[in-house]
Amino acid sequence: MELETWVSTFLVYATVIFVVSFLLYLVRIVKGPTIPDRVIAVDALGFDLAAFLIVLSILLRSPILVVCAVALSLWIYALDIYIAKYLESKELGE
Amino acid sequence: MAVADIINWILVIVGQILIAIGVMCDLIAAILMIRFPNFYVRLHALTIGSIGGAVVPIVGAALIAIGSPFLGAYRWFLAGAGIVTAMMIYILGAVGSHAIARAAHRSRAAILSPCYVDHLAKDRGEGSCI
C-alpha cells in the first residue's frame, strides 16, 4: 500500500472519533451546573482542538495550520488563569 | 525498498500508535466528563483529556509529519511546532488545572455534592462539608 493513502485513511478514522468526543464535551459545556465545570470542559475541548488541528494539517496537506494550534493552547491557558483570578477575587484585574 | 522508506514507515507506524492511544484517551475523557459526579472528580477527566488526549497525539502527529515526504519541505516546520505545542500543553495544562481547582475550592464556586470529608476546609475552620 502507498504511504500517503495509508496515512490519510488512518487519519480520517481518527478524525471521526475526535469529532464524537468533541460533541460529548459540548454536552458538559451546555449543562454543567457551575462555572468551574464549564471551564474545565472548555479547557479539555480546547487542548483537544489543538491536537485536532495538527492532525487536520497533515490530512489537508497544509502544515501552516500548526500556528493556530500553538496560539489556541496559549489562549486556553489564559482562560484558566482569568477564570481562577475572577473566582478568587471577583474581579479581572487591570 | 530503500532504507529511507523503511525509516519513514517505522516513524509513521509509531506515530499512528500514539494517535490511536490519544484518540482513545480523548473519547474516554469525554465520556467521563459526563459521567463523573462533581467538579473535583471531573478534574481527573480533564487531565486525561489534556495530557493523554492532546500531548500524546500531537507527538504522534509530529512523528507522522517527519516520516511523510508527500507533505513537502514544510513538514519539518510542522514537526518542530508540534513538539513545541506538546511541551507547552504538558506544562500549561497541569498549571491551569491546579489554578482553577484552587480558585474553585477557595471561593466555594463548585458544588461538592456527594461530600464525605473535606480536610482542607476543616483546617481553615469552615466545617468539614459545606
UniProtKB/TrEMBL annotation, chain A:
InterPro entries: MrpF/PhaF-like. It is found in: Cell membrane. GO terms for molecular function: sodium:proton antiporter activity. Keywords: Cell membrane, Membrane, Transmembrane, Transmembrane helix, Transport. Pfam families: MrpF_PhaF (PF04066). GO terms for cellular component: plasma membrane. The chain crosses the membrane at residues 6-27, 39-58, 64-84. Its main location: membrane. It is a multi-pass membrane protein. This is pH regulation protein F.
UniProtKB/TrEMBL annotation, chain B:
Pfam families: PhaG_MnhG_YufB (PF03334). The keyword Iron does not apply. The chain crosses the membrane at residues 6-34, 46-70, 76-101. The keyword Ribosomal protein does not apply. GO terms for molecular function: sodium:proton antiporter activity. InterPro entries: PhaG_MnhG_YufB. It comes from the Archaea. Keywords: Membrane, Transmembrane, Transmembrane helix. NCBIfam families: CPA3_mnhG_phaG. This is Cation:proton antiporter.
